[in-house]
Amino acid sequence: MSIVNQLMAAVLAVLIGLAAGTVYLMSDSSKTMLIHQLESHGQDTATHLGLYLAPYMADHDKAVIETTVNAIFDSGFYQQIRVVDADNAPIYIKTTGAQISDNVPNWFINLIDITPPEMTREITHQWQKAGSIFVQSRAGYAYEQLWLGTEKTFAWFVILSLVSLFFISLLMRYILNPLKGVEDQAIALSQQKYIEQTHIPGTRELKQVVLAMNMMVRRVRTMFNEQTKYIEEIRHAAYQDDLTGLSNQRATMSQLNERIDYRNDFGPGSLIHLHIAELQRLNSDLGMEKANNFIRACASQLQALAQLSDEPILGRISGSEFILLNNITDPDQLSRELNKLAETLKDSYRQLKGSCEHYSLFIGATAYTEQESSEKLLANAKLAAQHAHQENTAVYCKGVGNPDIQSSWHQHVSDKIISGDIFLQCQPVKPLSELQGPIHCEAYARILNQDNQPCAAGEFISVVKQLNLMTALDKSVLNSVKQQLQRNPDMKLAVNLSNDSVKDMAFCDWLIRTTHKQPVAKQLCIELNEASVLNNINQVALFRDQLKQEGVLFGVDNFGINPAGFSYLYTVNPDYIKIDGSLIRELDSSAEDRFFVRSLVTIAHSLDIKVYAEHVERETQLSALQQLAVDGSQGWVHGKPERI
């Protein structure tokens, strides 16, 4: 019960007590007044009767006495009239019951005892006592009048109480409105939302409460921001290059291994290797500051080129080397972009030095296919840069393959996606305690290749993206998942949506309609890649709220590697996060990775967000995750993805 309702109940209780006391006092006062009226009424009747009956009483004329008494008694206001002679011998007695109206309830009669007094008058005639007359008024009259007064008093009390309660309620709600704001603050704080009240009440006690709550909200927000900033500084020191802000060698190689050797979902593309030859001479010719500016220019131009791809991998792997894994597969486009990059950087060098003397920057690129390992791919890209150096040309790149074969594969993938001819594999996310069942299973889309053999997502996802069929693929996956969940009420499946689907309002509305008031909604988990979340924070936050209303869980995949940080967790507030596998790969041997993951877990748990680790392969990694209080793990340590 709210404090306003409790106070209203207390006020009502006081009013009821006050009314009961008022009715009691009024009844007692009215009772006394009515008894006095009955005394007066009886005394007056006795006097009048005595004046009239005096000669008849002296003559003992019973007929006249009886007629007169009956005539008065029939008026209905008397309970007993008794006429006695001078020796107190009865001459005539007329008696009836109290005659209380049926309108007066019995409980009221039993509660209040009214006994009208018997009034007497001595009668004299010709200076001699003729007798006495005793008159007792009827009690029913008093009960009727007292009950009528009580009824009216109670009715007015109820009316006035309701009116008073209404106005008191409005007044109290106005006075205590700041407490509602404090309640909203407390609820928002439990949901990691920081709200400050701008209206400060004038009441001293409420003012202090509101000011104290605002201060606490500011302190909690400051603590969270400082904690986030501290962890981002740790990540910057451990995984980012100080000069360029790009991923350093360790982080770049981890991400490259993760995407190519483990996830294998990047699809065809190319790896660009940019090499600044004779870096020491560059420092001598330009000076340290200008040389650093040139290196920053290289990083900046590569970042601009990376924006042409979806989820590229870009980093500085040594003082003079950069790599960029991108989705460009067209040889002409690749050559054109790299030549433009080389010319831009040559102009930057010329502006810094004034000439192109001793300028030596070479770019090599090699095509990437799913069959290559990250180690071989990097070696081929370095060989391409060395070839450019040997030939003294700025750019050297290899072609991607046979266009006819590509066209045939594109058509095959298009037909499969449009017809919905896909099947699902899944991999469980398990709690670190093996005594419990899977938390949920992540569903992966698969198709058959032209030889009717299952192929991994990395073999066709890039084609799906090029054909703008990612939303169609996500719909097919969700429809298949829905059918599986309907057949298996105990199963929970997670689906990773693409960036294209999240930006498509029609798709989001379709998904909400599909899950609205459906039992499968509570069995479904929707996941988004961290990059997709950061690119559409406001829309993702709205989408997440809609999913929450339907009971669908929401998670962030590949968490912790984006240089933009993770303060977005406060806005999106997912149910869980999955730490990217590149941060887990060396967890059992790297103190830096363990410290960073522990920091991520601390941040997430402070926001009531579950933390799962991706791509766990070894028991030693599981032991490290247990020590870091991670909630669950996913990877080949629990088995490879299997067909549902």
Automatic annotation (TrEMBL):
Residues 406-644 form the EAL domain. GO terms for cellular component: membrane. PROSITE patterns: EAL, GGDEF, HAMP. The keyword Transferase does not apply. Pfam families: EAL, GGDEF, LapD_MoxY_N. The keyword Cell membrane does not apply. InterPro entries: Cyclic-di-GMP_PDE-like, EAL_dom, EAL_sf, GGDEF_dom, HAMP_dom, LapD_MoxY_N, LapD_MoxY_peri_C, Nucleotide_cyclase. GO terms for molecular function: cyclic-guanylate-specific phosphodiesterase activity. Keywords: Membrane, Transmembrane, Transmembrane helix. Residues 173-225 form the HAMP domain. The chain crosses the membrane at residues 6-26, 154-176. It comes from the Bacteria. Residues 267-399 form the GGDEF domain. One of its GO terms (biological process) is signal transduction. This is EAL domain-containing protein. It comes from Amphritea opalescens.
